[in-house]
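Reopening this one. Same input as before:
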Amino acid sequence: MTSADYSPKSTSTVELSPSYTLPIVLIIAAVTIVLIQPWVSLAIALFGLFLLFQAVTIRLQFTETALDIYRSETLIRRFPYQEWQNWEIFWTSVPILFYFSEVKSIHFLPILFDPKLLRTCLEERIPKI
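Same output, byte for byte:
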């Protein structure tokens, strides 16, 4: 998709609500394997806690022209739709990873926000060809 191909259908800003499913599942998994593999369990638990912290502090907003990522109230990154080439949500039945590519880079994000609203916003603003 090029910038000439893109025109958003929605002009309102949508902020995705957080989803704590992935971090909580990782933390529970770590607790269940602590007696079998303590070091692996510790690594999984730490990763789960890190993702939990990210889910609490990071917000995604779909605006008229870009996907904005905020930490608390601070804009930390803007991804203009006109530079997007492709996107995908992996494992749609249990969404855990969101991928999108831009003209100059690719990005992978864990699903730490409402996956249904994410898909809706993506389909409205950056429809697949």
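So the earlier flakiness isn't reproducible anymore. For the record, DSSP finds three helices and seven strands in the chain.
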